């Protein structure tokens, strides 16, 4: 009976030890779980801060890209406007200067030498039939008009010289008829004369010059000048 009693006494102790171990394990699990939860909670608390920082960086980058895009757009717009303004200016210049005759053939050009001239050729010749309408190449005021080259010599025959606002002068020679007078204001494309074969001329044509003064000896290359004001011949 005593032995049985001892055995009965030992069993509860074993259960108590086992229960304590289980309780300790459970406690550890709870503590670890709490730690895990705490760690997890810490991660979740940090996450909004990281997301906010990333959002700010993205927003800053987007703003910088937007500014760069706006700057590029403005630059392209300015370049387009500049090109359009240049095109308009070219059209305006082209409209304000014209060739003195239509349906012509270019013959002797500026600087040509030969027995026909005492010096090198001072203008550009436009071969046209006698009686072809000659018009003012640009708006200006007639400063010379008449026979004897309008004062520049008989070689030019009947001639006209027009002064322009840019300080240049245009001259028209070998005319069959002069239709303007000194002091008269003329517009671009206005009829001023009829072409002819007067003076030192080897055939019907218009002799055209661009000068820096109204007088002989100050001629520029008329073809180059016309190109500079966007008129092709």
From TrEMBL:
Residues 75-87 have a biased composition (Basic and acidic residues). Residues 1-39 form the signal peptide. The keyword Zinc-finger does not apply. Keywords: Signal. One of its GO terms (molecular function) is metalloendopeptidase activity. Residues 120-221 form the M23ase beta-sheet core domain. InterPro entries: Cell_wall_metabolism_enzyme (IPR050570), Dup_hybrid_motif (IPR011055), M23ase_b-sheet_dom (IPR016047). This is Peptidase. It comes from Streptomyces violaceoruber.
């Amino acid at each position: 009976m005593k032995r049985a009693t001892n055995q009965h006494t030992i069993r509860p102790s074993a259960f108590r030890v086992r229960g304590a171990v289980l309780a300790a394990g459970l406690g550890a699990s709870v503590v670890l779980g709490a730690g895990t939860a705490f760690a997890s909670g810490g991660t979740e608390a940090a996450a909004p801060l990281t997301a906010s920082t990333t959002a700010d960086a993205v927003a800053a980058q987007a703003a910088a890209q937007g500014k760069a895009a706006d700057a590029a757009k403005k630059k392209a717009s300015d370049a387009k406007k500049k090109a359009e303004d240049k095109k308009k200016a070219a059209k305006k210049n082209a409209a304000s200067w014209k060739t003195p005759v239509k349906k012509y053939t270019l013959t002797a050009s500026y600087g040509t030498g030969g027995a026909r001239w005492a010096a090198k050729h001072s203008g550009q010749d436009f071969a046209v039939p006698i009686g072809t309408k000659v018009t003012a190449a640009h708006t200006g005021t007639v400063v010379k008009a008449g026979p004897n080259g309008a004062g520049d010599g008989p070689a030019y025959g009947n001639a006209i010289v027009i002064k322009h606002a840019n300080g240049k002068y245009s001259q028209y020679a070998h005319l069959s008829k002069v239709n303007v007078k000194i002091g008269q204001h003329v517009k671009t494309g206005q009829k001023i004369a009829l072409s002819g074969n007067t003076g030192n001329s080897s055939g019907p044509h218009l002799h055209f010059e661009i000068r820096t003064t109204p007088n002989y000896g100050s001629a520029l290359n008329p073809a180059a000048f016309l190109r500079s004001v966007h008129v092709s011949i």
